[in-house]
Amino acid sequence: MAQRSSAHNHWKPIMTLTGQGQITAAPDLAVIRLGVETTGYNLAQIQSENAQISQMVIELIQEAGNAEVRTADYSIERISQYENGNQIDKGYSVKHILEITTEDIESTGEIIDLAVRMGANVVESISFGLSDPELFYQKALNLAVDNAIEKSQSISGNLRVRIDPIPVRIVEAGHSPSPLLRFQRDAAATPITPGELTIEAVVTADFIYSS
User: What is the pTM of this model?
Assistant: First the structure.
């Protein structure tokens, strides 16, 4: 407990409490990161091979009509390894990573299988999230405020003091990013079943009280 003054009140005792709110929600969005990696000594050749396979993967997914596809990363790297203390040139690696977004959660495994059949050989991750996370966060935020008010009523009753149930100040303790469920690289033919997401909010609230 602390004391604070204001323009309308001289020193008033203040009770500062933390409120927490939490709700769960089923994800309605899947984001898949997969792609094609080709290796070899002829850079132009493996770039061309990578482009052909990547284009087939993109076209097949777009034809399915239930996902958006964009390039997330494209890289060219020299490959080498040490043998008996000597650095040996192993050619090049060309990697094209696609980010596939779909609201059809149940098709996630099928999309991965299609891509792998067309030549995708890198599956980085699968993430499940919410298309409108702010809606759920606001609900959790309201629960956090209610929790702080409930605490003020409980504590004031225990201390036998009178408390104004309307907080004079509320501060969010940071706004967490959209929650995600992540599955790391796994085999395709993949029955993928996401669980529920937990959305949390935390506030600190100041209440005026009197004896």
Answer: 0.72
